[in-house]
Design a protein that fits this description.
Length: 190
């Protein structure tokens, strides 16, 4: 089995090679599938990531949640952890850690605990049907999700090209419960 670093590099190269017009079609299919999930439809507060580089475009999803009067929470890198903040509009984001869009309004009344969200939408480089994921190597999401003390759906929007047979997993890795691709919804079998 390949190590995480080489697998990450291979899958990200595959994701990067998806042509722009094809990516837009895939993004729309993923968004429709995501919003068909009961876990998202019933959620009052949704934790999203702001898409970056060749990731699935989350901005239309964020806008749709806001239009549906859902509370939208995004992460901001604070040292070795992620701080979670409510946003009212994507205009409240600016390039932060490694130029990833992050919330700029970081007042105490906007800060949210991971325990206050109803659905969590996470990024990643690669996923397998058991819910194992390879992130980008910083461990931010593993640390954040390790503290989760309630049952909440962890959803990964991904291109079909990012789903592989098996991802190496370690004891501390926190998997996803649902993978939503441009072709399918995978209920993971941890």
């Amino acid at each position: 089995m390949q190590d995480k670093a080489s697998l990450r590099k291979e899958i990200l190269a595959r994701r990067d090679s998806i042509p722009g017009p094809v990516r837009k079609i895939k993004d729309r299919a993923i968004a429709e599938r995501l919003f068909s999930l009961n876990e998202i439809r019933q959620a009052r507060t949704v934790f999203f990531f702001a898409s970056f580089r060749s990731e699935v475009d989350t901005f239309p999803m964020i806008m749709r949640c806001l239009a549906e009067d859902k509370r939208v929470v995004l992460p901001r890198v604070e040292g070795t952890d992620l701080g979670l903040y409510l946003i009212n509009h994507p205009d409240e984001l600016a390039p932060g850690y490694i130029k990833i869009p992050e919330p700029t309004v970081i007042s105490d009344d906007r800060k949210v605990s991971i325990h206050d969200v109803d659905a969590i939408v996470v990024p990643g480089a690669a996923f397998d049907p058991r819910g194992n994921r390879i992130g980008y190597g910083g461990g931010f999401y593993d640390r954040l999700l390790a503290g989760l003390q309630k049952s909440v759906s962890i959803i990964a929007p991904a291109y079909e090209e990012q789903v592989i047979e098996s991802v190496p997993a370690e004891q501390h890795d926190r998997g996803v419960t649902i993978i939503v691709t441009d072709r399918q919804e995978i209920r993971c079998t941890h």
